[in-house]
Amino acid sequence: MRRRAKRALSLLQAGLVEHFTLIEIADERINAGRARAQQLGVSERATFIPTSKYLSISDQYGLVYWNNSLHHMPDCTAAVEWSAERLACNGLFAMDDFIGPSRFQWTERMLDYCNTFRRNLPSEVLAGAKPVTRPTIERMLDVDPSEAADSSSIVPALKSVFPRVDIAFTGGTIYHLALNDILAKIQDESQELKAALMIDDALSLMGENHYAVALSVQ
Length: 218
What we know:
This protein is α/β, with parallel strands linked by helices and 218 residues long. The protein has one domain. Helix content is 40%, strand content 18%. It contains 9 helices and 6 strands. It has helices spanning 3-13, 27-40, 76-86, 108-119, 123-126, 137-143, 154-161, 173-178, 191-205, and strands spanning 20-24, 46-50, 61-67, 87-98, 166-169, 211-217. It has a 4-stranded mixed β-sheet with strand order 3-4-6-5. It has a two-stranded parallel sheet with strand order 1-2. Helix 1 packs parallel to helix 2. It is globular, with a radius of gyration of 19 Å. This is Methyltransferase domain-containing protein.
């Protein structure tokens, strides 16, 4: 069971949410989620549905919450439209998700920023590490066909479906991509880590983002 399902169950356990309909991709995750809900004593307040059937849900909800899951949808525009249709009056749409290039097809500018940053790190941090590259579509489909399937469509869809949406872009070009394979070699509170986060913030303000948080009241 992924962390996002654990977060949802913790909200049920804390009494902050009355009931969750949880959408999961794989049967094994659904089974793990049900088992965990049983352990926490919230199984009667959690309904698990496979992703393949989520579009058939017709209920109205006070909250539609996507936590690092919207980018796994094959058609993100349809998923955002579905979200709006499922919201009750004054319902809240909430999202914390990857909104970067679909299939991780990083732009040349993103790759340049990442590799320039890495070249300035200590040699011991980069030992054995290769330059950041763009994966092939074939590789992405082989590893996980749902990964960032249509993520580039998320922000345009949010702005189209929720005209009053508040979007906070949270970066990621450095912390997600440039540090992905070397973070374990960088000490907490080190100058390298502080510099990485500062550069990431600056790039975010320049429009280079892999992640965003969004809120909108229907």
